[in-house]
């Protein structure tokens, strides 16, 4: 155990560590109620997935929140997990720049397509879906 104030990894005495970098990753939705609220809001179907989006009420939560779901229609557990991994990755790449703070998004995998569609095409689909959802929300 390192005592408080001891040098760690070559720090010089009196130096201050930089604060941890703020995470640009959105929070993940975990509660069923959040998924149900998103299901009642805006919806945009794309070839590789369906996007559900809703603007949260003031003070409900901060930042961007995202949820992922794939039903058994997508396939067995291996296929569902592969589809969700791909959805998580496109969300990680696209949402920090194209998503809006104060919004919840849910990406729903589609049978056979989500796991096999070209990755760049899925990224473009998410950008287009976000533009449509935010354009209709004004």
Automatic annotation (TrEMBL):
Transmembrane segments: none
GO cellular component terms, A-Z: ribonuclease P complex
Top EC class for this record: hydrolase
InterPro entries: Ribosomal_Su5_D2-typ_SF (IPR020568), Ribsml_uS5_D2-typ_fold_subgr (IPR014721), RNase_P (IPR000100), RNase_P_CS (IPR020539)
PROSITE patterns (UniProt xref): RIBONUCLEASE_P (PS00648)
Domain of life of the native organism: Bacteria
Catalytic activity: Endonucleolytic cleavage of RNA, removing 5'-extranucleotides from tRNA precursor
GO BP term, pick one: tRNA 5'-leader removal
GO molecular function, one term: ribonuclease P activity
Keywords (A to Z) from UniProt: Endonuclease, Hydrolase, Nuclease, RNA-binding, tRNA processing
EC number: 3.1.26.5
Entry similarity comment: Belongs to the RnpA family.
Annotated function: RNaseP catalyzes the removal of the 5'-leader sequence from pre-tRNA to produce the mature 5'-terminus. It can also cleave other RNA substrates such as 4.5S RNA. The protein component plays an auxiliary but essential role in vivo by binding to the 5'-leader sequence and broadening the substrate specificity of the ribozyme.
Protein name: Ribonuclease P protein component
Species in which this protein is naturally found: Rhodovulum steppense
